[in-house]
Every structure is written in C-alpha cells, then in structure tokens.
Amino acid sequence: MRIIVLGPPGAGKGTQAKLLAEKYGLEHISTGDMLREEVKRGSKLGNIAKEYMDQGLLVPDNVIVEMIAERLGEGSMGKGFILDGFPRTLSQAKALEDVLGGMADIDMVIYIDVDDDVVVRRLGGRRSCPKCGAVYHIVNNPPKNDEICDKCGHPLIIRDDDREDVIRKRLDEYRKRTSPLIDYYMKRGKLVRVDGNKDIYCVFSEICIHMDKFFKSSAMEGKE
Ligand code: ADP
Ligand code: AMP
What we know:
Layout: E1 2-6, H1 13-24, E2 27-30, H2 31-41, H3 44-53, H4 61-73, E3 81-84, H5 90-100, E4 108-113, H6 116-124, E5 126-128, E6 135-137, H7 164-178, H8 180-187, E7 191-195, H9 200-223
Parallel strand pairs: 1-3, 1-4, 2-3, 4-7
Antiparallel strand pairs: 5-6
C-alpha cells in the first residue's frame, strides 16, 4: 500500500504516519526527518537544505526529488510506504508519479484538515527528540518525564523552525505551494479528508476506517 499524508505544518502528519506505520507494517518516509538527518550530519545536501528550512521556505524541488527517488529506489518497503511531507508542490507530485510509474501506484492521499489557530498552538507546544525522532506536545501529548524522551531518554528540543516568525512563513508556503495538491488529488479520486482538529486517537480511528475500507475493497477485487 502506498499512502501520502497531506496537510499543513502541525496538522499531525508525523504523529499519524508513525501510528499507521506501526499498525499496518508500512515504511514511514518523512522528507522533513530525512533533511534534519542531513543537517545533523553536515552533508552538502544538509547545508543547502538548512538555509531554506531555517527561513520556513520549501527546499528546492530538484533537491527533494533526487533525495526521495533515491530513497524509494532502495526497496525494502515491507507492505508499502507512507509519505509524510512529500509531495509539497505540484511539480513534486508529478515527479513522484514518474518515479512510481503513474498515479495508479498511489493508493490513497489522507488529507488532515486542521484550523489555522489549532496549527499554531500545536507547533508552539511541539517537542521533538533529536535522537529517535519521537514527537510530543507539552499539553496534548506530554512525555512522562519533563523534556525527556519516553522512548530513548534523550533530552527533547524545540525545532529551530518552530519559532513564531518561521511558523508564519511555513503556513504561508503551505497555502501558496502545497494546498493546490488537495484539489489535484481530489480530481484524481485519491483524496480522503479527515478532521484533524480532534484528539490524536480520534483522528487515528478515522484514518483507520478509511484504511480498512481500502483493504476490504482490494481483497474483494482480488477475489473476483
Ligand atoms: P506535522 O508532522 O504535520 O508537522 P506533528 O505530527 O509533528 O505535525 O504534530 C504537531 C504537534 O501537534 C506535535 O506536538 C504533536 O504532538 C501534536 N499533535 C499531533 N496531532 C494532534 C492532535 N490530533 N491533537 C492534538 N495535538 C496533536
Ligand atoms: P516537516 O518536518 O515536514 O515539517 O519539514 C520541515 C521543513 O523541511 C519544511 O519547512 C521545508 O523547509 C523542508 N521540507 C520537508 N519536506 C519538503 C518537501 N517535500 N519539499 C520542500 N521542502 C521540504
């Protein structure tokens, strides 16, 4: 199964993608996490990406497409994959189809629809583990021990781009460059919308209903 999770920054894409990957045995591929790894390693790609990320801008399409094509070309995807944070522009969406060999190869695009004020509150309270990538929220999903990762014990951080001025720019980029993808995938019959304003497990159950429906209908098609 090949899934894309779409939505504004702070919608809960990473949170839901991790839960889905665990439940359905899918590979979670986050371009944001991949870029942060490159920045940490101080690679050439990381240095280029950091310039854009720190300003809340999208990293250029050619850089992202090359990175994701390489990742998808590595194979070992288990039962499939969940793309989190990619594509983010129409040009990336088209490049993805070239890499996969057509739109038919994307099974579902889950659009997590969240109000702007909710997004701002979520990003303002996000805490991330720089070691294992776990994500928390100081109010909605706090770690058991203050500012320490439950999973690996590493101190949590506030992401450089979760500052108020950068958040505003990221939302701007989302509206201008990423939100046209909602219509793009809707017209192609791939989009399911979920209400992302609800709590983490309500959103997760809503997504699971769509996932299970998809598996049921593919199994029925297989039998005919
Ligand atoms: P994205 O990957 O879309 O940027 P994240 O998954 O990192 O978003 O979530 C952003 C923040 O909001 C995190 O601090 C996370 O713990 C919190 N969060 C995610 N989903 C929900 C939800 N449904 N309700 C409340 N808080 C949430
Ligand atoms: P994320 O972790 O998904 O919120 O992404 C963090 C930042 O990484 C974004 O604000 C962009 O600067 C960059 N980024 C991640 N994915 C992409 C993408 N598909 N295209 C362009 N830039 C991206």
